[in-house]
Amino acid sequence: MFENNRLCKLLGIKYPIFQGGMAWIGTSELASAVSNAGGLGIIGAGHMPPDLLRIEIKKTKNWTQKPFGVNIMLMSPFVKEVMQVVLEEKVPVVTTGAGNPGEYIPALKKIGSKVIPVVASVALAKRLVRTGVDAVIAEGLESGGHIGEITTMSLVPQIVDAIDVPVIAAGGIGDARGVLAAFSLGASGVQMGTRFVLSNECIAHENYKKMVLKARDRSTVVTGRATGHPVRVLTNRLTRKFQELEKAKVDVSELEKLGAGKLNLATHKGDVENGSVMIGQISGMLNEIKPVKSIIADIIAEVQPALENIKNNCK
Ligand code: TUI
Predict the structure, then answer these.
(1) CA–CA separation, 281 vs 207, rounded Å?
(2) Which of 96, 110, 209, 263 could lock 117 by a disulfide, CB 3.0 to 4.6 Å apart?
(3) What is the pTM of this model?
(4) Which residues have any ligand 1 atom within 6 Å of their CB?
(5) Domains of the chain with CATH codes
(6) How far apart (Å, rounded) are the C-alpha atoms in residues 170 and 82?
């Protein structure tokens, strides 16, 4: 299965499964493992300074011969320098998030990178296709971290209908059922972040992984709507503080101050009460840490039985 998949052919990968390029935890360890397992591993540049990103890219190149990507977070203070590193290192696939990458697309296309932005609206998808992007990732609000306003279920088919390049569905996908749901909506591939957080290769602190394992369906909440940068995270002391301040209608700068540096506090220092535990809604369904190779192999093995299930449910 997937031998003739449009996205696999475009990128030279075996399975149409992307690993979301998560800030701080989408490292070379995780990205190379996903690429070696037949998916597309993606280094999350987040707020990473350019010299560190170069090291991560070099490590990934050492550990895999397969295509890999870098996700550039467009709100990063280092966005221009990080883009320069990606150009110099001729990264095969560049995904972007949290903004409009339009101005960077010509340079990336010139060096032969495949450019695949994350979009959260039909309008941006259409605009970016006109600038020559190779595919788009349609990310629904079920995702962890910085999110848009539309669910995956509603966003993916509307984007599929509006553009001709392959669409990768993201947000709320964690197993073969989710993969088939995405394909039903017209997607040619999927991107998963949360599922890969619960892998042996993900370097997130064990407290972070434990909290994700314990998560239930209603454990995540969206904070920061007032700042214009809504973020999905697990409920904890930090989110309660955030909600209190939001209710009191404090200045946006106060809220921004409270959010600063909190992701690293959770992912690396393991303070999951005062830190920001970004994770998707699908975390409620996941209860096992596995090697990346098993995550991907198990999903692929489940596709056929899940298809049979669909047929049975339709009878
Ligand atoms: O980028 C993400 N998810 C992220 S980035 C991140 S790091 C961070 N740290 C602290 C605060 C905020 C972020 C954590 N999670 N996902 C991709 C994504 N992009 N989701 C939504 C969007 C998006 C939103 C608006 C893409 C484009 C867009 O367009 C704006 C425009 O100009 O039209």
Answers:
(1) 18
(2) 96
(3) 0.97
(4) 23, 46, 73, 97-100, 118-120, 124, 139, 145-148, 229, 231, 263, 278
(5) 6-203 (3.20.20.70), 216-278 (no CATH)
(6) 24
